[in-house]
Specification:
Structural class: alpha+beta
Distance between the termini: 32 Å
Radius of gyration: 17 Å
CATH class of the domain at 39-74 and 89-133: Alpha Beta
Low-confidence stretches: none
CATH superfamily of the domain at 39-74 and 89-133: Ribosomal protein L16/L10
Strand content: 25-35%
CATH architecture of the domain at 39-74 and 89-133: Alpha-Beta Complex
CATH topology of the domain at 39-74 and 89-133: Aldehyde Oxidoreductase, domain 3
Largest sheet: 4 strands, antiparallel
Oligomer: single chain
Shape: elongated
Number of helices: 2
Helix content: 10-25%
């Protein structure tokens, strides 16, 4: 699973995800992509599950690019612990995704295989998505 090698600070604020993506909104590597249409946090486990779904459906043909990286530590307090006594310890890594962001790109496979692979990947993510191509949105 993806995680940063080192961080400046161990714990991060929760923050809010509002507005549209500033960058990463166009296809840069592959011919097909999966674009986010709603804001949410995506964990490193979800990214890995989507990546596996894509590569298995493509039967390891073609190439996959992951355009998001989980760089936000999410902390949790243990179960049945009273409030107070500070912030919980970091449990997993997540990525804040804004609408318009391209999350995955693939190339080297046919349109039908690419569309099906991206639909399988979208089912693993807690976010609304759209399949995009070099020619334009949704063929």
């Amino acid at each position: 699973m993806l995680a940063p090698k080192r961080m400046k600070f161990r714990k991060a604020f929760k923050g809010r995800i509002h507005g549209n993506a500033k960058g990463g909104t166009t296809l840069n590597f592959g011919a097909y992509g999966l674009k986010a249409t709603s804001p949410n946090r995506i964990t490193s486990r979800q990214i890995e599950a989507a990546r596996r779904a894509i590569t298995r459906h493509m039967k390891r043909a073609g190439r996959v690019w992951i355009r998001i990286f989980p760089d936000v530590p999410v902390s949790q307090k243990p179960a049945e612990v009273r409030q107070g006594k500070g912030k919980g310890s970091p449990e997993f890594w997540a990525c804040r995704v804004k609408p318009g962001r391209i999350m995955f790109e693939i190339d080297g496979v046919s349109f039908d295989v690419a569309k099906q692979a991206m639909e399988l990947a979208a089912a693993k993510l807690p976010i609304e998505t759209r399949f995009v191509t070099r020619l334009g949105e949704e063929r």
